[in-house]
Amino acid sequence: GKPINGVKIRINCFDNNIGEIEARYDRCNESTYSDRWFKTGDVGYIDEGGNICLMGRMNNIPKYDNGYIYPFEVQRIVEKNRENNTVLPLYINNKLVIIVSPQSDRVNSIIRNFLLEKGIREFHIMSLDKIPRDPRHHSKIDMKEIKKKFSNY
Questions:
Q1: CA 62/CA 120 separation, integer angstroms
Q2: Which neighbouring-strand residues pair with 10?
Q3: Is the pLDDT assigned to residue 58 strictly greater than 90?
Q4: Which among 49, 64, 76, 79 has most CB atoms closer than 10 A?
Q5: Tell me: the pLDDT tens digits for 16-50?
Q6: Helix (H/G/I), strand (E/B), else coil: 77
């Protein structure tokens, strides 16, 4: 969507027009933030209509030789195919791992084709019956738990 009145948004780009979303509120004073821009930790871009489009979180954007893998981009590919699986791309021990929950051969095939089209040849698709959620929020994925589960991979 669009920013609310009084809030300015900028993108600190690192991949074409995609980058970290930074926000500034008109009434924010310099003692709050030295340059008055708040780094949200979210990655995205602003489309032609001025809408903010999220792509993932800064701390979970796997990079490969030809660019980046954006979690929301992979999730949208799966959703376009009318699948409701949770898909989570991340790096574990310097390996690109895509976690799919629940397991689905069809979703695995969709993801595999997407990655191959992007020129990515080295990746692993793993499945979990249930994605662990942060007990404080119940909706956020518990990244610490996921990384712990796959730390020996």
A1: 12
A2: 22
A3: no
A4: 64
A5: 889 999 998 876 666 555 577 888 999 999 999 99
A6: helix
